[in-house]
Amino acid sequence: MKFQGIIFDLDGVICSTDKFHFLAWKQLAESIGITNFTQADGDLQRGVSRMESLEILLRKSKRQFSDEEKFALAEQKNNVYRQMLGTMSKTDLSENVRTTLFALRKSGRKLAIGSSSKNTKYILERIGLGSFFDAVVDGNMISRGKPDPEVFLKAAELLDLPPEECLVVEDAAAGIRAARAGGFEAAGIGDAANFPATTYPLTLLSDLLTIL
Ligand code: B16
Ligand code: MG
Question: Which of 56, 80, 115 to probe ligand 1 with, by most ligand atoms within 8 A of CB?
Fold first, then answer.
């Protein structure tokens, strides 16, 4: 087996919380007078950390905010986002993702999550995968966000495998760049299927089963 380990991004690969991110950021934008926060702005926030996402949003504001105010804004957004996550359940895990994960587990591979989100554990619990993965590395465990490879290198380390034996699965440009910077091959889903740095384009997560 070329890949003994698979490291999955969470949002956009295992489940889809991007719609909640967008709605919560949009609500925050409007509360500080930004009326032109669009889906294209939301797309730029894919895969990057909460504070970097805030900076992307604040580019649309004429006001300057102190660091203290920025932390308060990020918390305000996160509170709204967490409430939305509370509506998620096992039904938010698609059949395609569920059967793919179980087939990969059966093949004997080690499986990990490498996510920028500080809400990773909560999301995994909501969708019924709270204790499924062999390793979970999230935004609370890293000091540099994607496109820095830290999150994936830490996941490989926890799986006790070198990067060349792990495949990273990502949906975002920042994540594909992080994977390649860490010496990983990358499978890309969604927009990431078309990036030049993506090794394996996926239409569905189950396409992994034919690639491996
Ligand atoms: P949080 P991923 C990322 O998750 C999201 O794609 C990105 O939009 C978000 O800003 C980031 O998590 C931080 O999320 O505010 O929950 O800490 O794609 O790396 O699984
Ligand atoms: Mg993602």
Answer: 115
Give catalytic status of residue 9 as yes or no. yes
11 is catalytic: yes
Does ligand 1 have an atom closer than 6 angstroms to the CB of 49?
yes
Mean pLDDT of residues grouped by 10 in the chain (212 residues)?
96 96 98 97 95 97 97 98 98 98 98 98 98 98 97 98 98 97 98 96 97 90
Q: Which residues contact 118 (CB under 8 A, 6 or more apart)?
A: 50, 78, 138, 139, 140
Query: What pLDDT does residue 36 have?
Result: 96
Predicted TM-score of the model (pTM):
0.96
CATH class for the region spanning 18-85: mainly alpha
**CATH fourth-level superfamily of 5-15+89-211:** HAD superfamily/HAD-like (3.40.50.1000)
- Ranges for all domains in the chain classified under CATH 1.10.150.240: 18-85
In this structure, the residue with its CA closest to atom 6 of ligand 1 is 47
User: In angstroms, rounded to a whole number, what is the distance separating the alpha carbons of residues 166 and 63?
Assistant: 44
